[in-house]
Design goal:
CATH topology of the largest domain: Jelly Rolls
CATH architecture of the largest domain: Sandwich
Order of helices and strands: HHHHHHEEEEEEEEE
Number of domains: 2
Low-confidence stretches: none
Number of helices: 6
Structural class: alpha+beta
Radius of gyration: 18 Å
Distance between the termini: 29 Å
Number of strands: 9
Helix content: 25-40%
CATH superfamily of the largest domain: Jelly Rolls
Oligomer: single chain
Shape: elongated
Strand content: 25-35%
């Protein structure tokens, strides 16, 4: 079965029109959301596979895992069954969740397994780069570990400068932003729980 056929079946089982699915995507992903035309083309088979980041968004909006979305299609990964039996969640370098660009100097890449209840990102900030100000639902935490360079974290009116090896945890329901005010690139691991992207 084609993956588009599976998406169409799940969407219909859940009683969602294509426009309903797009509304859910827009409410979660804003301007980065998969658009109506892309979903239509995947379901029709005009796009054979779809990018991993696109499939992750669709699976999230349909409230199923990526494995469930791929089940019975040519993209089903049978090695996952063995990994599941050993309670392993492996993310291969070619199977990451995609890179999202805030702008030309700030990006974030999903590096955790799609099935996980938490999410890990790799944050990259070039000199002068900054993420947008974000505010997560109540009860969400973020933990940042700086791998290289210097990152300034703004939480409300408080600024904290973090260098390689430093870490910080915040209640991310408060408005927060990461920026690189130095002259060298910076990278960090960013953990978020519960999963929301």
């Amino acid at each position: 079965m084609r993956i588009g056929t599976n998406i169409l079946q799940v969407r219909k089982e859940k009683g969602l029109k294509r426009s309903d699915l797009v509304k859910k995507l827009r409410s979660s992903y804003g301007a980065r959301a998969v658009d109506y035309r892309t979903i239509e083309r995947i379901e029709r088979g005009d796009i054979a596979r779809g990018r991993l980041s696109t499939l992750l968004q669709i699976a999230d909006a349909l409230e199923i895992t990526l494995d469930e979305l791929r089940r019975g299609t040519e993209f089903e990964d049978t090695s996952r069954q063995e990994e599941r039996s050993e309670r392993m969640l492996i993310t291969r370098s070619h199977g990451r969740g995609g890179i999202f660009h805030y702008n030309d100097k700030a990006s974030i890449e999903i590096i955790s397994p799609p099935e996980a209840t938490y999410i890990f990102f790799l944050l990259k900030l070039l000199p002068g780069g900054a993420t947008k100000s974000e505010q997560d639902p109540e009860g969400t935490i973020k933990f940042l570990f700086v791998l290289s360079g210097t990152i300034t974290m703004n939480v409300g009116n408080v600024k904290r400068v973090l260098r390689k090896g430093d870490s910080i945890q915040i209640q991310s329901s408060r408005a927060h932003q990461f920026e690189n005010l130095s002259k060298r690139p910076a990278t960090a691991l960013l953990y978020q729980n519960p999963k929301r992207f």
